[in-house]
Amino acid sequence: MNLIENIREGLRSIASNRLRTILTSLIIAIGITSLVGILTAIDGLQNSVNTSFAGLGANTFSIVARQDDYRQGGRVRKQDEPIDYFDAVQFKRRFPYGATISVSTVATGAAQAKFGSKKTNPNVQLIGGDPTYLMVKGYTLQTGRNLTQNDTDYGLNVAVIGSEVAGTLFEKKLNPVNQVIRVSGNQYKIVGVLDKKGGFSGGGDDRMILIPLDNARALAGSQRQTFSITASVPTVGDQDEAVGEARGVMRQVRRDPLGQPDSFDIERADDLAKETENITGYLRIGGFGIGFITLLGAAIALLNIMLVSVTERTREIGIRKSLGATPQRIREQFLIEAVVICILGGIGGVVMGLGIGNIIASLVSQGKGGFVVPWVWMGLGLVVCIGVGLFAGIYPAVRASKLDPIEALRYE
Fold first, then answer.
1. pLDDT tens sequence across 125-140
2. For 406, phi and psi rounded to 5 degrees?
3. Residue 383, SS3?
4. Which residues contact 74 (CB under 8 A, 6 or more apart)?
5. Nearby residues of 81 by Cβ (< 8 Å), 6 or more positions away
6. How far is CA 270 from CA 240, 277, 318, in A?
7. What are phi and psi of 408, to 5 degrees?
8. 63-100 burial, b for 16+ CB within 10 Å, e for fewer?
9. What is the pLDDT, as a whole number, of residue 73?
10. What value does the CA radius of gyration of the chain take, rounded to a whole number of Å?
């Protein structure tokens, strides 16, 4: 009995026991589904994160007020003074690097917009910004126009609204542009509507209303405001030098004493992307561990089924040996059966894992990540299947090959 005929015999044995084959393959498929599904979902989430940061641009950094108290020399240093309008304007004037700089402030994070009888939930961000805000933050206009320098110079009551705000107030029945809405007690004429951004902002970017910076300052009255400075340098290669220059200029503006830490934070877009990539790396390790444990259980179940198969086919093994089949061929036949069953389950598991993983990633990222085909994880899943088949099949195969043909023929 040569190897080719042995393979055919193994396949015939699998085909003759369809129910056992299906159940066994299903056990493997569930294990592979958990492995490939989790890793595919993580890749899909990472893809969504990368898409979100790509819109912001890797050559962008922001200067923001330090939010937390921190320890220095064994003592807790109180939160630094917020970045005020004077600081932001002085930085914009002094920064010599040729970057595009936007100054903005959050007037309120719990605004409610109204149009006629329609109104939003009180979770709309009312942001004051300048004409460069949308560009450096990675927004795109769906319709209408951006804020102009004239709007910001005179603090006109005009606004650019997010897609969710437009959908809630106008329900695609009216063109939002040139309509007048009421926010925080003031009326604003809509001049532009933003494209849907979604992604990992949780929809917050789509619940945004942008008004001229001086208009937002007037809303604050005597309350203190903190301003954010966002800069976009020409190329990614310029960012390190630009960040260093920005730190020096901001320290001068803020009058930070020599030898003391910065009284502000600089957040780089690529740092945020790297941080999320590290987090998803840990998630991959955890996902692989969960999938491996599931597959280990599937391998033990397959081992048990193969041992039962050896017992059921004792007489068949005796007949093969009496016809000249060597122990090596007997081992090959059982190993082939175990590996083929695992591959069948693996293919089904890869397909299910691919679908389930992408569905989970799409739901979490609100459809921003796109369809992910993780060839590496799919290949790994099939390789693991073959390994599981060998692990679960080798002991039953050796046991079958050692059966005495005379005793096997007597088995009923």
1. 999 999 999 988 888 8
2. -70, -45
3. helix
4. none
5. 65, 254, 263
6. 11, 10, 67
7. -65, -40
8. bbbbeeeeeeeeeeeeebebbbbebbebbbeebebebe
9. 47
10. 32
For residue 252, the model assigns a pLDDT of 92
Residue type, 213: L
Of 146, 143, 141, nearest to 197 by C-alpha is 141
> What residues contact residue 373 under an 8 Å CB cut-off, 6+ apart?
354
d(CA 43, CA 364) in angstroms, rounded, equals: 12
Q: Please give the Cα distance from 271 to 61 (Å, whole number).
A: 9
Which amino acid, residue 171? E
Report the alpha-carbon distance of residue 379 to residue 384 in Å, rounded.
9
**Phi, psi (5° rounding) for residue 35?**
-70, -55
Please give the helix or strand (H or E) that residue 142 lies within, else none. strand 141-144
- Residue 63 backbone phi and psi in degrees, to 5: -110, 120
Residue 206 contacts residue 198 (beta carbons within 8 Å): yes
Strands, E assignment, 247-397:
264-268
What does the H/E/C string look like for 287-308?
HHHHHHHHHHHHHHHHHHHHHH
- Residue written as token pair 């310029």: 238
CB atoms within 10 A of CB 271: 13
Asked if residues 365 and 44 have their Cβ atoms less than 8 Å apart, the reply is yes
d(CA 211, CA 139): 15
The answer to whether 13 and 20 are in contact (CB under 8 A) is: no
pLDDT of the residue at 211: 95
Cα separation, 209 vs 190, whole angstroms: 10
Pairing between β-strand 60-65 and β-strand 70-72 as defined by DSSP bridges: unpaired
Count of beta carbons in the 10 Å neighbourhood of residue 15: 9
- pTM value is 0.60
**Could you tell me the two tokens for 358?**
């992408």
Give 178-203 as a DSSP string: T-EEEETTEEEEEEEEEPP--GGGTT
Give the pLDDT means over successive 10-residue stretches in the chain (412 positions): 66 74 80 82 75 62 73 53 90 84 91 92 93 89 94 92 93 90 93 80 77 90 85 74 89 88 82 71 79 78 77 74 76 79 83 84 68 78 80 78 68 55
For β-strands 186-194 and 141-144, DSSP reports them as antiparallel
Amino acid sitting at position 122: P
CA distance 412 to 403: 14
